[in-house]
Amino acid sequence: MDFSSVKGKVAIVTGASRGIGEAIAKIFGENGMKVVCAARSVEQGQAVADAICADGGDAVFIQTDCSDVSQIKNLVDKTVEHYGKLDGIVSNAGIGQGGSPLHEYEMEDYDKIFALNSKGVFAGMKYGAEAIFKSHSQGGFLINVASIAGIIPQRGQALYTATKHGVVGMTKVAALDYAPYGITVNAICPGYTKTSIFGNAPEQALTFFAKDCPAGRMGNPEECGYLALFLASDLARYITGAAIPVDGALSAGHQNVSTWKHPLFD
């Protein structure tokens, strides 16, 4: 598959210091894109940008707290100042919080998760789209990293699920808004994915996640990374408004009934 169309494109990747964001940033860099790595952690974010440059790519790091709208605007402004344009933004930064019935959440939990997972993504799309228009980008794109929680509700995840459903909704509306102008807008919806968020999880927990998935394993960040590369390329110019699961069929349906056999077929 020829991804040469992305060469020279300028893209921001938020939450680029680890996991899926890191994978997307590095894959973009490997394919000739100019990458702005944004994250709160200076040490980890700079390390990703340095790794891209060490492999012959072009990347810079800009420290950004994506729960702060003013910092996202500053991120976009600095990107355009440095590279002269913006072709796309991957809004990946987010947090998970759950495992409790709705009434056990505090109102502070609502404010915290919505500030990053919802308002932060909206700001990235808003300021990113403005810069893409001003750059007269040929092949502009907005990619939001949502979750399968944006497709199917998950018990004990009221706030997280609400934010990810919102991201998918914003993605679809923005796709309608920008389709006439050739800007694609899509959401990547990962399922269980091996990232540092599971770093301290016991092996028993990882085994559970693998068995809970119809594919029998957890995903790798690079699987989302290559999907992002495809969506950023000219190969995907007619794909917009999609929320694409990367989940080993986890969101396809309730798999447990497949173990039940009707007596007539015994």
Automatic annotation (TrEMBL):
One of its GO terms (molecular function) is oxidoreductase activity, acting on the CH-OH group of donors, NAD or NADP as acceptor. InterPro entries: NAD(P)-bd_dom_sf, Sc_DH/Rdtase_CS, SDR_fam. It comes from the Bacteria. Gene3D superfamilies: NAD(P)-binding Rossmann-like Domain (3.40.50.720). Belongs to the short-chain dehydrogenases/reductases (SDR) family. PANTHER family: SHORT-CHAIN DEHYDROGENASE_REDUCTASE, SHORT-CHAIN DEHYDROGENASES/REDUCTASES FAMILY MEMBER. This is SDR family NAD(P)-dependent oxidoreductase. It comes from Roseburia intestinalis.
